[in-house]
Amino acid sequence: QVQLVESGGGLVNTGGSLRLSCTASGFNFRFYTINWVRQAPEKGFEWVSTVSSDGTTNYADYVKGRFTVSRNNAENTLYLQMENLQPEDTAVYYCAKAGDVPRGQGTQVTVSS
To answer: What is the rounded CA–CA span in Å between residue 29 and residue 75?
Structure first.
């Protein structure tokens, strides 16, 4: 059974930092491209970042230069380091296999102004 469990969210002030984690199980993690997506209150899912199986990364323009995605295949874990957080980054953050919908509960990130 495919599982992706997000953690590391919290409440920070504008300009603060957080590091999110996504722990995977039930599939061969190292061979899959994984996305971070987010959902703000009363909005749809919004793509944030992608890391492919070979480590290639991509970012949405609105997080580029502030967020860094990485993966540890030995630990089946994906990370999202978020710097200089802004109120508009407030959302529930999810990780998901490319082409799949988020399956976990997500982790809440709240940035106060």
So the answer is: 9
